[in-house]
Amino acid sequence: MSEINETKRLLTKKDLNRFFWQSQGFVSGFNYTKEEAPGFVFSMMPVIEKVYSNEEDKKKAYQRHTELFLTEARVSHLVLGITAAMEEQNALKKDEFDENSINAVKSALMGPLAGIGDSLYHGTLRPLAAGLAVSMIAASNYTSPLGSILFVLIMAGIGQTIRYLGIHKGYEKGFALVDMIQNSGLLQKITRYAGIVASIVIGGWVSAFVWVSTPLSFTSGETTIALQGILDGLMPNLLPLVTTLICYWLLKKKKVSPVWLILGVMVVGVILYALGIII
User: Fold this and answer.
1) What is the mean pLDDT of residues 74-87?
2) 134-to-23, 31, 148 alpha-carbon distances in Å
3) Bigger pLDDT: 116 or 81?
4) Cβ-count burial 186-214 (b if 16+ within 10 Å, e if not)
5) Per-residue pLDDT reduced to its tens digit, 47-56
6) Contact present, 72 and 114 (Cβ < 8 Å)
7) ∠ CA(22), CA(20), CA(63), 5° rounding?
8) pTM of this prediction exceeds 0.85
9) How many CA atoms lie within 13 A of 142 on its CB side?
10) Which of 6, 85, 103, 138 has the fewest other C-beta atoms within 10 Å?
């Protein structure tokens, strides 16, 4: 793969930009037979049409990319960039290049990149962006659309940046870029520190958006002691924290469906409120 970085190029920056815009339809053809393969074929059209002049070679290239493909949609563009470089070299060195290696590389990259994309984009960035958006919406008493707009801008902006860099850097650097990401320890560091930030944000959500308190009290002589005051003395927002931890335990350990958990919280909440245990 390192040879790709040193040989003749057929694709210009203009071609790569066209490739990028074509790839916006990457997930539009998703199905449960070939997963993202239809989108992969559609995205590769500008590359295949540019690097191959022979119609038979074009047919082979299109057919090659109808094989099942599935990874995280944004980091998939790194595979698109690498694949473009390999198709280019196949066109330039037809007698020397093993065209079977193209699908082999695609298959090898699907799993590792899915882990990277899912953990960073969906597992870390989305909760952080949602936390900022929800905070802004709540601060405006649920009347301002700015929080929703911010969420869309963050997710779309970073998603598009990943797509753009994936195609350009994948084409320029090839497989070596994936090796660098996996072996340098950079991914582990990003995941670790992003996880710390996400935990802090989630802790803030519990304090700000989970409301549970109790009106229960007991009398000792002429003194009435509120149970909520005792709990606040032990730890402010103790009941919201306990409620959140119970929900987390049910989701993580008992594998309770989120839908059933929401319904259960509503039912239990109504019952406890009717009994005068919580407010």
Assistant:
1) 93
2) 31, 33, 8
3) 81
4) ebeeebeebeeebeeeeeebeeeeeebbe
5) 999 999 999 9
6) yes
7) 55
8) no
9) 1
10) 6
